[in-house]
Design goal:
The complex is a heterodimer of chains A (119) and B (230). With 119 residues, chain A is mainly α. Chain A has 7 helices and no strands. Chain A is extended and about 60 Å long. The chains are: A mainly alpha (119), B mainly alpha (230).
Chain lengths: 119, 230
């Protein structure tokens, strides 16, 4: 999607999404103020709290790749290169624990690979 | 007010610096994804929800519908349900301060305030949370403006969002030392194989499947512990 198209397509509907989303976050953050304590101490909620965010982030990658492949938009060579760069990002983050540094290195690496190696 | 801010500033400063840089990264990546300079700031001011903000940008720029995006963001933010608990004993009496504390309670503010022993007075806690919120929004403004002004329109910069998700995933796996999220993720996407769905609906369906997998794993674990214990 073209950059300007996204910005132009956003309007009152998107603002409503943000407000509804913010209300949802507000209710979730304030749950201990609004909900009975017994409901919050349900052990399964603790497990979801720990493990669900990681699963959803992984799903972002997997679902994106799956839908691109189903629509015939996934090209294997660039995909493999990007997957390797993402693994390098994970390794860099584990080594240095500096988010901004990792992102700058990854963007530079992506630029070099796509401009000069894959052409 | 100023003495409270003076007291809160040194407590909040480490998180403020981090928030400013990540907020700037958000502004920059959102601007590069085509959100302009205005929307990223509005997202930060209204949502103030870290990873969920990046997910909103990523999902909308992939063409996901607003309802699908809201549903996935709701699932991602489920963890916030637990944040208020440690503050029950020290919650502000003032209703406005209480509302602000709920709105500003983020992962890092939660970690920072719960690690302080003895706990800071409620007015200082609210000020710390507010300073963190302001630095997040200010970082977003700087990042999104830079994204508009600098000639950064290359595909590689859009890739920053993917890199950030890779970092967040690494951090989640490292912190929890569990491969259950990976298994749940693959189960979630496996559910989609026979279906013909777009990205937004796919995220929602596979998110539900991943939630069911984690709940199933929890049930198995507690049943086994019950057998060993009983």
């Amino acid at each position: 999607m073209e950059a300007s198209v996204i910005s132009d397509a956003l309007g009152p509907g998107f603002l409503l999404l943000l407000i509804v989303g913010a209300l949802g976050v507000f209710l979730q953050r304030g749950a201990s103020f609004f909900l009975p304590r017994k409901a919050l101490e349900w052990p399964a909620m603790g497990t979801l709290n720990r493990l669900l965010p990681g699963a959803l982030i992984l799903l972002f990658f997997l679902v994106s790749w799956r839908t691109s492949a189903a629509e015939g938009r996934l090209e294997w060579q660039p995909w493999t290169a990007e997957l390797l760069i993402l693994l390098a990002a994970a390794a860099l983050h584990l080594a240095f624990r500096r988010v901004l540094l990792t992102i700058v290195c990854v963007v530079a690496l992506h630029f070099i690979v796509f401009a000069y190696v894959l052409g | 007010m100023f003495p409270t801010l003076r007291q809160a500033l040194p407590i909040a400063l480490p998180v403020m610096i981090g928030y400013f840089t990540v907020g700037a990264t958000f502004g920059l990546t959102a601007a590069e994804a085509g959100f302009g300079w205005f929307w990223p700031v509005i997202i930060s001011l209204i949502q103030f929800a870290g990873a969920a903000q990046f997910l909103i940008v990523a999902m909308v720029s992939q063409g996901a519908g607003f309802i699908d995006t809201a549903a996935v963001v709701f699932l991602l933010n489920l963890r916030h349900v637990f944040y208020g608990l440690p503050f029950l004993a020290h919650r502000p009496e003032n209703p406005l301060a209480r509302l602000l504390m709920i709105f500003w309670l983020s992962d890092e503010t939660y970690s920072l305030l719960t690690s302080r022993k003895p706990a800071d007075p409620p007015r200082v806690q609210v000020a710390v949370a507010g300073l963190n919120y302001v630095s997040w929004a200010a970082g977003t403004l700087v990042g999104s403006t830079a994204g508009q002004l600098l000639p950064l329109s290359v595909d590689s910069f859009s890739f920053a969002l993917w890199a950030l998700f890779a970092i967040l995933l690494t951090e989640q796996l490292r912190a929890n030392r569990s491969f259950v999220p990976v298994i749940a993720g693959f189960v979630g996407v496996a559910v989609l194989v026979p279906l013909k769905v777009d990205f937004g609906l796919g995220m929602f369906i596979s998110g539900l499947a991943a939630t069911a997998t984690i709940l199933g794993w929890h049930w198995l674990l507690t049943t086994r512990r019950g057998r060993i214990g009983g």
